[in-house]
Amino acid sequence: MGESKMVHSPLVTYASMLSLLTFCPPIVILLWYTMVHADGSISQTLSYLRQHGLQGFLNIWPMPTAIAWKIIVCYAAFEAALQLFLPGKRVEGPISPAGNRPIYKANGVAAYSVTLITYLSLWWFGIFNPSVVYDHLGEIFSALIFGSFVFCIFLYIKGHVAPSSTDSGSCGNLIIDFYWGMELYPRIGKNFDIKVFTNCRFGMMSWGVLPLTYCIKQYEENGRVADSMLVNTILMLVYVTKFFWWEDGYWNTMDIAHDRAGFYICWGCLVWVPSVYTSPGMYLVNHPVNLGVQLAIYILVAGILCIYINYDCDRQRQEFRRTNGKCLVWGKAPSKIQASYTTATGETKTSLLLTSGWWGLSRHFHYVPEILAAFFWTVPALFNHFLPYFYVVFLTILLFDRAKRDDDRCRSKYGKYWKLYCEKVPYRIVPGIY
């Protein structure tokens, strides 16, 4: 059985699935509506809902339109084609619980470059105006909410009928199977990896495309792009560029190597990432803030520094693993713990746990610059409204929860070695505090 099956009790799964299904779609629509039509004011949206009740909410909810479906299908097909046909180096993923080693084609940077250049060229040469995407954003999110649900049903059926590897199987409970997923590495054919598509090429790529859309919309409305919008967009693009630069490292993380492809992760990447993660820019379209050159540069430098530290944390650990601990960390030999563990098949293996550099500060120190980076690309919106900070708050909760899940997983995997590791690196995320 996959580890997600053991970590989460049926009760937790039912509760989280019900809350995801019940609260997330309305949050996506309400977030969009408030940013675009209610001046970014939560109280304005709430008073509207108080007056008009459920019917008012149904009136807000845009139905998916033909143009929304057309935009989504063209975008998805374009990204799928890039994923399949662009050249890239062969990369091996980590060995799975069932002993499989997934093979990937690392062409993320190429796909990202082609996507952004194509998108800007379509606008520049007057072939397609990205403002259309902004104007139909509600319908697009609505279509994604329903379409992604159907896609997850397809994943569930595929897991039963035609699993791609032995890292699959049912736990005997339909809801848990649907929610946490049937397969760890579902593929279509031999080469098209579904999780790389949903998480990276659809979800993360949209995080690069939508901020550009918001910039272009603001430019077309006002004849100029405010410095606040520029700072927000540049920081987001730097972050997403960092992601694709490091994409083959992402394939070793919890999302890909441990969480199965089910509703929880795929619906989140297909719907939540495009809508929630880009929301500060969505707000700035109609609320251009003039920061002034000095403040804009301060925020930009602070944000880029955080993104760099976040990248350097991951790079340090990757380098440490690649060289089997025979590398320099901050100019000296790394301190480490050699931990042994037993696999599902009963083999004993060893792992090295890094306890110096960024990883000596706390066990998940890389989450600190990640949360701060999100704060810095949101802060250009200033503090008139709370809603632009929704993503920062959500990210903080998500990462604190992920750190706990990761700690629990490592504790059961490494046992006494993990205890030793925690004594050496006592803080979970924030050094000296938590």
What do these coordinates show?
- This protein is mainly alpha-helical and 434 residues long.
- It has two domains: 289 residues, no CATH class; 144 residues, no CATH class.
- The chain has 19 helices and six strands.
- A two-stranded antiparallel ribbon has the order 1-2. A two-stranded antiparallel sheet has the order 3-4. The chain has a two-stranded antiparallel sheet with strand order 5-6.
- A hairpin with a 5-residue loop joins strand 5 and strand 6.
- Helix 2 crosses helix 8, helix 7 packs antiparallel against helix 13 and helix 10 packs parallel to helix 15.
- The chain starts with a helix and ends in a 10-residue tail after the last helix.
Query: Could you list the spans in which at least 5 consecutive residues all have pLDDT below 50?
Result: 1-6
Total helix count? 19
- Radius of gyration from the CA trace? 22 Å
Which shape, going by the Cα principal axes?
globular
DSSP strand tally: 6
Residues in helix, %: 55-70%
Structural class by secondary-structure content: mainly alpha
Q: Could you tell me the mean pLDDT? A: 93
User: Strand sequence of the main sheet, in spatial order?
Assistant: 1-2
The biggest beta sheet reads: 2 strands, antiparallel
Query: What is the count of structural domains?
Result: 2
Strand content: 5-15%
Distance between the termini: 32 Å
Spell the H/E element sequence.
Answer: HHHHEEHHHHEEHHHHHHHEEHHHH
Subcellular location: Endoplasmic reticulum membrane
Protein name: 7-dehydrocholesterol reductase
Keywords: Cholesterol biosynthesis, Cholesterol metabolism, Endoplasmic reticulum, Lipid biosynthesis, Lipid metabolism, Membrane, NADP, Oxidoreductase, Steroid biosynthesis, Steroid metabolism, Sterol biosynthesis, Sterol metabolism, Transmembrane, Transmembrane helix
InterPro entries: ERG24_DHCR-like, Sterol_reductase_CS
